[in-house]
Each structure stands twice: as C-alpha cells, then as structure tokens.
Design a protein that fits this description.
By secondary structure, the chain is mostly helical. It contains 10 helices and 4 strands; from the N terminus they run H-H-E-E-H-H-H-H-E-E-H-H-H-H. The chain binds FE2/S2 (inorganic) cluster. The site of FE2/S2 (inorganic) cluster has 8 residues, from helix 5 and helix 8.
Length: 251
C-alpha cells in the first residue's frame, strides 16, 4: 500500500516535537561534565598518589612527582594536559557551550545578540587555540598510558588479568581512538593543501587524511567513551587504595 506523503504540517509537528525536548541533551551534558569536573578536582587536589600494586591511575601518569621527588598534589603535574586537551576539544566546546552557556542550547535555536563578541580571537576563548599544542603533549601522555597498561598485566606472580588490567586496557584504547580522531590531528595529517587530485593519483598523505576523516566521524562517541573509561579506571584504583573493594583477578 502506498505510504501517504509527508505534509508540511507533519514536518512542522516533527520540528515542534524536536524542539520541545531540545533541553534534554544540553542538560545531560551539563550534569555529566559538571560531575566529572567535581570528581576530577577532588581526585587531583586531595590525593598525592594514585597507584595500587601494578595499577596506575590515568590521572597520575606519568609520575612526574616521583621522578623529581615532589610529593605535593602529584596529579597536578600531568592532569592539566588531558584537561586542557578535553576542554579545548572542538566537540566538547560545542557540547559545553550548549550545556553551560545555553547560547544557543541547540542548533535550531537562535543566538542572543552579542555586539561585543570576538569569538576565539581574544581571551578567554582564545585559550581554545591551544588545542593543537595540547595534542602534542597528550601524545606523550598516551605513550605512558600504554606502558602502564602493559604493566597492569604483570603481577608479582607473573602475567595475569585483573579487572583493573582490563579497565586500563579499555581506557588506553578509548583515549587513543579519541586522540587520533581529533579534528586538529586530521588537520595535521591533511591540512594546508588545496588540491589532492592535482597530483593525478592518490598520495600517501591523501590516504592518511581519508582514513583519519573516517575516524573523525565518530569523534563525539570516542569523546564520551574515553571520559567514562578514564573515570571508571581512576575510581576503581581509588576504591582499591581506600580498601573499599578488592581487585578481582580473572586469572
Ligand atoms: S577536536 Fe576533540 S580532541 Fe581534538
């Protein structure tokens, strides 16, 4: 049987339904990011170490404080790097501008007039231009997180797998996917070039840019997944350190 054609009023109704719930996503973003920021402040400002046995919390790695014998607020020497990276992320900017500033809360809402708005050309929003440089630093941190992941499978008794090992592994995978699907990384790989087809055949650079563009489509999903895994891995290790739970060894 033929389906009835969609009418203008159907479209208007869908639009109204859509806009009626426009606040759900920005409100959810504000709640989750707000809780995560509070948790991170508690973790970074009120703890001087973040390791339990062969597990090292991603907030405390690499252990710069240990290298130099500084044992005050150890996480602060490193945690600012992923925090700057995450808060200057193009995807998160969209999310937290909507969630916290509500201006506009969704793409089909008009913006308030802002005569003095200078975008990211002046402080404080110019801070977001640090994103590319934060990527370089995050790459170094990622190398250490993978080293910690390998270490998380090596117990005193030899190779083994605990819940903590798996959490750190999933976290390293998600953070790697988040970092390598980054818009700034995509620009590093393929930006600054006007014409790829001018060379007659696909270049290696074009192929790399094409691959990173495919990863970039899912950047928002990796952003949330990596936030969840960093949080879960750190919380698991913190609860072990506090004696609230015991590590479960799978073998
Ligand atoms: S754009 Fe999100 S991490 Fe770079």
């Amino acid at each position: 049987m033929a389906q009835p054609l969609e009418t203008a009023s159907d479209s208007a109704l869908q639009g109204a339904t859509k806009s009626r719930y426009y606040w759900v996503t920005p409100l959810g973003t504000a709640i989750i990011l707000g809780l995560w920021v509070l948790y991170s402040l508690w973790e970074v400002l009120f703890h001087n170490s973040g390791s339990y046995g062969n597990y090292i919390s991603p907030y405390f790695s690499p252990g710069v404080g240990n290298w130099f014998g500084w044992h005050v607020l150890d996480a602060l020497y490193v945690a600012w790097i992923p925090l700057v990276f995450r808060f200057s992320c193009y995807y998160y900017r969209k999310e937290y501008y909507r969630g916290f500033f509500w201006d506009p809360p969704a793409c089909y809402h008009s913006e308030r007039p802002r005569p003095g708005y200078t975008g990211e050309s002046k402080w404080p929003l110019a801070f977001n231009n640090l994103h590319r440089y934060a990527w370089y630093l995050v790459f170094i941190v990622l190398v250490f997180l993978w080293k910690d992941t390998v270490q998380a499978f090596i117990f005193k008794s030899g190779f083994g797998v605990g819940v903590g090992s798996l959490l750190l592994l999933v976290n390293a995978v998600c953070l790697t996917a988040y970092s390598f699907s980054c818009h700034a990384f995509r620009h590093m790989v393929g930006g600054g070039k006007d014409c790829y087809s001018c060379e007659g055949k696909p270049t290696v650079r074009y192929k790399m840019w094409h691959r990173v563009s495919g990863w970039n489509v899912f950047h928002g999903s990796w952003a949330w997944a990596s936030l969840a895994t960093v949080w879960a891995a750190d919380l698991y290790i913190r609860l072990l350190m506090m004696g609230v739970i015991h590590d479960v060894r799978l073998f």
